């Protein structure tokens, strides 16, 4: 049985509609980054409609450097939960000395980044 181009186009559109309806998030990563657990950084999107605050230290009481709006792609260097609150924070790969974002404001990665040393 042959599949017509029109039928395969409709099947692709239906699959995309299901992904959107289920709230699925597709994140494109560089080749090899998704399969290599020791990859140096990950790209995640800001998932909070209120944006993601970026702090100088992994604490919400630290100096707030800026806020990235919803949908912004962030390059994550590593993660830590060794904070006074015990919450998970991601360190951004930036030119700044350190910049941290709380994990609750970004999309969950399929493969978590390495722990910060």
> Mean of residue pLDDT?
75
Strand % is 15-25%
Helix amount: 10-25%
End-to-end Cα distance, whole Å, is: 57 Å
Main beta sheet strand tally, sense and closure: 4 strands, antiparallel
Describe the global form: globular
Order of helices and strands: HEEEEEE
Give Rg in angstroms.
18 Å
- How many β-strand runs? 6
- The number of helical runs is 1
**What structural class results from the helix and strand content?**
alpha+beta
Poorly predicted segments: 13-39
Concise account of the structure shown:
This protein is an alpha+beta fold and 117 residues long.
Question: What are the SSEs and their pairings?
Answer:
Elements: H1 5-21, E1 42-45, E2 52-55, E3 64-68, E4 73-80, E5 89-92, E6 100-102
Antiparallel strand pairs: 1-4, 2-3, 4-5, 5-6
Describe the structure.
Residues 13-39 have low confidence and may be disordered. It contains one helix and six strands. The longest helix is centred in the first third of the chain and has 17 residues, at 5-21. The protein starts with a helix and ends in a 15-residue tail after the last strand. The strands form two sheets. The chain has a four-stranded antiparallel sheet with strand order 1-4-5-6, with no helix packed on it. A two-stranded antiparallel sheet has the order 2-3. The protein is α+β, with helices and mostly antiparallel strands.
Task: Provide keyphrases for this structure.
two-stranded antiparallel sheet
